[in-house]
Amino acid sequence: ADPDPLQDFCVADLKSSTSANGFPCKLSSEVTSDDFFFDGLVKEGNTSNAFGGSVTPGNVLAFPGVNTLGISMNRVDLVPGGLNPPHLHPRSTESGIVIEGKVLVGFVSTANVFYSRVLRRGEMFVVPKGLVHFQMNVGEGKALIFTAFNSELPGAVVLPLTLFGSKPSVPNDVLT
Ligand code: GLV
Ligand code: MN
């Protein structure tokens, strides 16, 4: 969970050169209704990639109005067979709801126990903070999921990218 706010709101000034744990606030005199509404999760993401999936973020970087509020959401689109690959959020617990499709959702505990279920429309899941999890479309049609976080910037460690896509790359001997 993120720290509690010290004022009603603090719309992020993403362009500020001031550094802080989070983002400084834009001037209240410049805050408008537009700062508290976001249509960035309306459209399906681009699923033309190796995973057949896309995660569209509604975090503070995309939606500056959530700054200091300690919450955010994502949109996840998956083609049939598509995967949101194993990843974890270092700063947040996750919950989610399937809006469309049939989705295998799972996470692995620190004791290496795998918990999973196939979910359909309207069904929810939770992922404890920091645990590795994934979603896979196991239905015939598209799947749509909305996820919610108790952090405005949950962060994502995507295991395949972390291990095999880092720059510079992790030495082969280590990966072997
Ligand atoms: C799904 O796991 C997400 O992080 O949005
Ligand atoms: Mn996640």
Provide keyphrases for this structure:
176 residues; mainly beta; 32% strand; binds glyoxylic acid; binds manganese (II) ion
Describe the structure.
The chain has 176 residues and is mainly beta. The protein contains 2 helices and 10 strands, in the order E-E-E-E-E-E-E-E-E-E-H-H. The longest helix is centred in the last third of the chain and has 6 residues, at 159-164. The mean pLDDT is 97. The structure holds glyoxylic acid and manganese (II) ion (MN). Manganese (II) ion binds at residues 87, 89, 94, 133.
Radius of gyration, in angstroms, nearest whole number: 18 Å
Task: Compute the number of strand runs.
Answer: 10
Q: Let me know the average pLDDT.
A: 97
Read across the widest sheet, the strand sequence of neighbours is 1-2-9-4-7
**Ligands bound here?**
glyoxylic acid, manganese (II) ion
H/E series:
EEEEEEEEEEHH
Residue share in helix: under 10%
Question: How is the quaternary structure best described?
Answer: single chain
Distance between the termini: 36 Å
Could you write a compact summary of the structure shown?
The chain has 176 residues and is mostly beta strands. Helices cover 6% and strands 32% of the residues. The longest helix has 6 residues, at 159-164.
What is the topology?
Layout: E1 53-58, E2 72-78, E3 83-88, E4 94-100, E5 103-108, E6 114-119, E7 124-127, E8 132-137, E9 143-149, E10 157-158, H1 159-164, H2 172-175
Antiparallel strand pairs: 1-2, 2-9, 3-8, 3-10, 4-7, 4-9, 5-6, 5-8
The structure holds glyoxylic acid (GLV) and manganese (II) ion.
